[in-house]
Amino acid sequence: MSTAEVAGRRAEVGGHGVGLGAAAARQPRRASAWGSIRRQRLALTGALLVGLFALVALVGPALAPHGPTEQFSQDRLQAPSTAYPLGTDEFGRDILSRLLHGARISFQVGAIAVGIAGLVGIGLGLLAGYLGGWVDNVLILLMDVVFAFPAILLAIAIISLLGNSLTNAMIAIAVVYAPTFMRVVRGAVLGVRHTAYVEAAVSLGAGTPRILSHHVFPNITAPLIVHASLNFAFAVLAEASLAFLGLGNKPPSPSWGSMVSASYGFLQLAPWAAIVPGVAIALTVLGFNLLGDGIRDALDPRTRG
Fold first, then answer.
1. Which of 86, 199, 249, 267 could cysteine-pair with 96, CB 3.0–4.6 Å?
2. Dist CA 149 CA 75 (whole Å)
3. What is the CA radius of gyration of the chain?
4. First and final CA of the chain: distance in angstroms?
5. The whole model's pTM is what?
């Protein structure tokens, strides 16, 4: 075998070795985040709670034994039993059925409100952090004005202006939480806009939209994932708070917050009517908070062992 052939074989073997090594290196990186969450019991508990909530929201209404507004007047305020596993409310409606239907509404509100808040906040944060100058000052001033109002009072004011409906409640929640996305994104952009790869893209003549979409945004997704998971919990809690006050989802349509509100006057006679939806709200919010903390630790290289 000639020297050239030997060198070629070595290069081929070396190339395969590098390829296998790169593939082996990529695989642990992809699995490291989920592996980190699995090693944390609280984060794994949060993931299970969030998964259960999503599953109930998707298939729960199909599994409900009764309609959400179906009344059994002869069985009002019945304690949990085989016929009504979670009891009935003051109108004789099955609490389990209303709980399953209400989960879809809470999930819908959380997903849409956080989605709108994320789109608006991410766009404004990218512009403020990258452009700087008067654009940054104006946007920061606008966000400070929004932050000056208590969140729930601002949401109530927006619903009062737009009208009392579930759609307007989602818009109000999105407006309340959009500034938090903007602040997170702006801070992350300030940390990457002077990095070498961004300056290289600028020197090559790349436009601002391309730089933001291809070079800046992909490198700030980690804090956004954590922030979105935590804000999902806040959105669910905000919807329940508004429903408790009679805003957003209108009766008799089921909502966890309105279920707590309607059962408040029957705590001594039928405590389960308020406790069941209250526990559902608490577990859902707890699940998203635990999962958000776990994702934060998993994506932070400083916390990895």
1. 86
2. 45
3. 25
4. 48
5. 0.80
Encoded tokens for 169? 């409640």
C-alpha span between 255 and 75 (Å, rounded): 21
pLDDT tens-digit series, residues 73-100: 888 989 999 989 999 988 999 999 999 9
Task: Find tokens 């609490």 and name the residue.
Answer: 95
Tokens of 232: 């999902």
Query: SS3 letters for the chain?
Result: CCHHHHHHHHHHHHHHHHHHHHHHHHHHHHHHHHHHHHHCHHHHHHHHHHHHHHHHHHHHHHHCCCCCCCECHHHCCCCCCCCCCCCECCCCEEHHHHHHHHHHHHHHHHHHHHHHHHHHHHHHHHHHHHHCHHHHHHHHHHHHHHHCCCHHHHHHHHHHHHCCCHHHHHHHHHHHHHHHHHHHHHHHHHHHCCCHHHHHHHHCCCCHHHHHHHHHHHHCHHHHHHHHHHHHHHHHHHHHHHHHCCCCCCCCCCCHHHHHHHHHHHCCCCCHHHHHHHHHHHHHHHHHHHHHHHHHHHHCHHHCC
Contacting residues for 295 by C-beta, under 8 A, at least 6 apart = 33, 37, 43, 225, 226, 229
